[in-house]
Amino acid sequence: MNGILIVEDDKTIAMGIEYSLKQEGFETHICHNANDAIDIIERTDFLLIILDVSLPDGNGFDLCKIIREKGDTPVIFLTACDDEVNIVMGLDMGADDYIIKPFRVRELISRIKSILRRSNKKANSGEFINIGDISINTAAAKVYKKDKDILLTALEYKLLLTLANSEGKILSRNQILEGIWDVAGDFVNDNTLTVYIKRLREKIEDDPHNPQIIKTIRGLGYKVGE
């Protein structure tokens, strides 16, 4: 997944949202018109898409139709219009939330996190999480690479699951440690985390020295996915 797409013709608003999302560890992409948005939406999968309803060459409702034809990527509408008919129409089209301008960016971030948590639970309610050629069967706690069974320790599995559940988002070392601390019988601290990351890469990466699944983001932490 390629982070969060912001489709907003007001460059000041777009930059403010982008800055706040990057502070939270999200990757962002910005489009200022409908044509550019259609092009990237058709080529790329996103964690979530923020749509301005009014665009110079179209509207967010038409973009939402395209998004829904492709899949169930979460969508938040931004609009200066608080007309109930427009709000209901947006939600009926499959939008996950609707925010009226002007708004506080912190409120938007809070709603984004809430939607992503719900979306993540929905995705993981099934049996499989797929990342590249890695498939995680959450019901059986098994991991496969190109249909070949990969044997992981309980801690390695929990580490992979922690990273996979935040696909596309950078996790700090502390966040990862919080996600795996309760694995019985294993003690992991900041020093030994590097060792476990290395062991996991050796089992799931084609080239552990040039990892494409678990990526190191220097000075920030680790990330799974685009």
From TrEMBL:
GO molecular function, one term: phosphorelay response regulator activity
SMART domains: REC, Trans_reg_C
Domain of life of the source: Bacteria
Domain Response regulatory: 3-116
A Pfam family that the UniProt record links to this protein: Trans_reg_C
GO cellular component: cytosol; protein-DNA complex
GO biological process, any: regulation of DNA-templated transcription
Chain positions found as 4-aspartylphosphate: 52
Domain OmpR/PhoB-type: 126-226
Keyword set, alphabetical order: DNA-binding, Phosphoprotein, Transcription, Transcription regulation
Residues of the DNA-binding region: 126-226
Function: May play the central regulatory role in sporulation. It may be an element of the effector pathway responsible for the activation of sporulation genes in response to nutritional stress. Spo0A may act in concert with spo0H (a sigma factor) to control the expression of some genes that are critical to the sporulation process.
Protein name stated in the entry: Stage 0 sporulation protein A homolog
Source organism of the structure: Alkaliphilus peptidifermentans DSM 18978
